[in-house]
Specification:
Elements: E1 18-24, H1 32-37, E2 48-55, H2 60-74, E3 82-86, H3 90-103, E4 107-111, H4 113-127, H5 133-147, H6 151-164, H7 173-184, H8 191-197, H9 204-218, H10 227-241, H11 245-260
């Protein structure tokens, strides 16, 4: 209704954007101990030829298809190692697996380690609600085991600990949630192999894109967006973030000239109405 909300209707509606990024990076071999200490941060290679974009109009499947198209244009013979980093969303993983099967790249799907860590912290607070060093040690120990490829053992261990302590179902819910997340994504948590192969295991590139590409503009206080307007702003911000704006603007001006000028003349030939300027004259005299 125009004047009042209908039953169950919310005053404002939010729509989730799908964000994608494609980049190239050389292999960077590490060990779980290196990852835990963070001592290799200065040696990490910088992503090259990074392109990011986002859409709220298109479905996740359409955005992922564009991602495959972009990657395929860079490596049409599938000579590089293809890695897809995701946050564990089952729909995304299902689409990635299907499209990889159709387009034939040997795709390695990796669940972002940062999301795993967040689940561990939530589970750890059940056993150490007071926080402090005990909680940090609990998380670090299990993270180290997961990085060694033992996510299944970690999931089983935390469940047994909750059962031995006879925790109420509501209290142990974060533990069961974390364990379920680990067991459901075991094929994509082989971090020991990924690190040994030099593959990325964290989605820092995409998390940064979600912030500076979408949130910093779309979620400002008091902003209200139409679907078309928000999609246009996201497209422009993606061009700037991918450093493609200058090239795009030249293309935009050429198309605009074609639409507003060339299309109005026969055979798209715009007559030159600028008269050639006469050669400059001088009133100065040369005296000898």
């Amino acid at each position: 209704m125009e004047k009042r909300l209908s039953p169950g209707e919310k005053k404002n509606a939010k729509r989730m954007a799908t964000v994608a990024a494609v980049y190239t990076t050389p292999p960077f071999i590490r060990h779980p101990e290196n990852f835990m200490s963070g001592g290799f941060s200065s040696q990490r290679p910088v992503p090259e030829h990074k392109r990011v974009w986002a859409s709220i109009e298109k479905t996740p499947e359409q955005v992922i298809a564009e991602m495959f198209e972009e990657a395929g244009s860079r490596d049409p013979e599938y000579e590089k190692t293809w890695v897809a980093l995701v946050d564990g969303n089952k729909t995304q993983i299902r689409i990635l697996r299907r499209m990889a099967k159709e387009s034939k790249p040997d795709l390695t799907i990796v669940v972002d380690i940062i999301h795993v860590i967040e689940y561990l912290w939530d589970a750890g607070r059940v056993f150490h609600p007071q926080g402090g060093q005990d909680l940090e040690n609990w998380v670090n120990h299990r993270l180290g085991e997961i990085l060694k490829g033992k996510a299944g053992y970690v999931a089983g261990g935390m469940r047994r600990s909750a059962t031995k302590r006879d925790l109420e179902p509501e209290i142990r819910k974060p533990v069961d949630k974390c364990a379920r997340y680990l067991t459901n994504h075991l094929p994509y948590l082989r971090y020991d192999r990924y690190l040994a192969q030099g593959l990325p295991i964290a989605t820092g590139v995409i998390e940064g894109a979600c912030r500076h590409l979408v949130k910093d503009r779309m979620e400002i206080t008091g902003a209200r967006w139409s679907l078309t307007g928000a999609e246009a702003i996201l497209s422009l911000r993606a061009l700037r973030s991918s450093r493609d704006f200058e090239e795009y603007w030249l293309f935009h001006e050429a198309r605009e000239y074609e639409r507003t000028h060339q299309s109005r003349y026969a055979e798209n030939n715009v007559p030159n109405t600028i008269k050639p300027s006469a050669p400059p004259t001088s009133n100065k005299h040369v005296h000898s």
